[in-house]
Amino acid sequence: MTEPLRGDARRRMAAAAVVLALIVLAIVLAVLLKEPAESPPQPAAPSTSPGASTSPGPAASGASPSTAQPSPSQPVEPSTETPEAGQDPVQPPATVPPVPVPPSAPDAGPGPAPDPGPPAAPFPSALLGQDLTAIPNAGRVVALTFDAGANTAGLPKILSTLSAKGVTGTFFLTGNWVEANPGGVGQIVSAGHRVANHSMTHPGFTGLDGTQIARQVRGAEQTILAAGGDPRPLFRFPFGERDARTIAAVNSLGYAAVRWTVDTLGWKGTSGGVTAQTVADRTLAALQPGEIVLMHIGSNPDDGSTLDADALPDIIDRISAAGYGFATLDALLAP
Predict the structure, then answer these.
(1) Which candidate in 193, 198, 202, 296 is catalytic?
(2) Which pLDDT does position 268 carry in this prediction?
């Protein structure tokens, strides 16, 4: 009977060992499965990539773990590279620091002279756009004027008469006349008379363009200046031929245009039926305050007469007897 009992005991012990081993295995498995769930979360390593944002993480902003990372269905906001990203705004200080004042430049000595302003007008603006036929507001005076474009035949007698009578006149000279008679300007100026511009070659101005007008006026001006006179700012149109355009052109060159009140017609000469008497009579018939009398220096080309020079003594005497004095055309330039 003993042999069967020993076999049963060994079987029971083997079964108990198996059960015990199973229990131990179950305990070991339970411990291994429970340990990862209870281990604390490990901190994430900081990112060192060049494009990493400087924004604080969820712990710093107070966000819950469930909202720390956007879900795949939510759009991802683009990150910013500016240093201010994620920072609190900085309030400006209560007082603004003063702006530094740059040091003053060293004294460079006296500065440039003050701007004197635009040059004075060469003649009163009231004379613009006009070809004057009398001296305005001149009172009881007469201006004797002499055009020089041909020859000097009458000049000696004219200058002698003016000197003897104590009268000054205004002489309108062409550039050609000055070039042909270089001493004539000196005689006129040295005697105290006024010279003025009568163009370079005595053409009709209405047929000239602006450039040609400028050449005529400037050419005569330079020629007269070179001879010792200054014609500015008085100009007379050759033949009295002018219009609004040519007057404006002359004005733009710094000249006031001056015509005449009366033409004595002495230039027609005796061959034209004129005498010294008729010259004087025409002048006195037009007598008025500010009268401008047109006479000529040269002789008539056909008969050689110099009627204006011949009539001048009588003209001066009769004007003086009428209670008039004499003036040059500078009276036009008075303010």
Answers:
(1) 296
(2) 97
Q: Residue 169 and residue 183: Cα distance in Å, rounded?
A: 18
**Greatest distance between any 2 Cα atoms in the chain:** 201
Q: Which residues of the chain have pLDDT under 50?
A: 1-2, 5, 35-109, 114, 116-118
CB 202 within 8 A of CB 174: yes
Nearest in space to 307 (alpha carbons), one of 335, 266, 268, 261: 266
Residue among 174, 184, 191 at smallest CA distance from 231: 174
Task: Please tell me the predicted confidence (pLDDT) of residue 82.
Answer: 33
SS (H, E, C) 73-91: CCCCCCCCCCCCCCCCCCC
Between CA 248 and CA 252 the distance in angstroms is 6
User: One of 147, 263, 308, 310 is an active-site residue; which one?
Assistant: 147
147 is catalytic: yes
Both structure tokens of 237:
């149109």
Asked whether the bond before 75 is cis by omega within 30 degrees of 0, the reply is no
pLDDT at 70: 38
Half-sphere exposure of 274 (CA within 13 A, CB side): 22
Burial label, 218 (beta-carbon count in 10 A; 0-12, 13-18, 19+): middle
Whether the pTM exceeds 0.85: the reply is no
Q: Which two tokens stand for residue 148?
A: 């020089």
At how many degrees (to 10) do helices 155-165 and 182-190 cross? 10
Please give the Cα distance from 52 to 220 (Å, whole number). Answer: 87
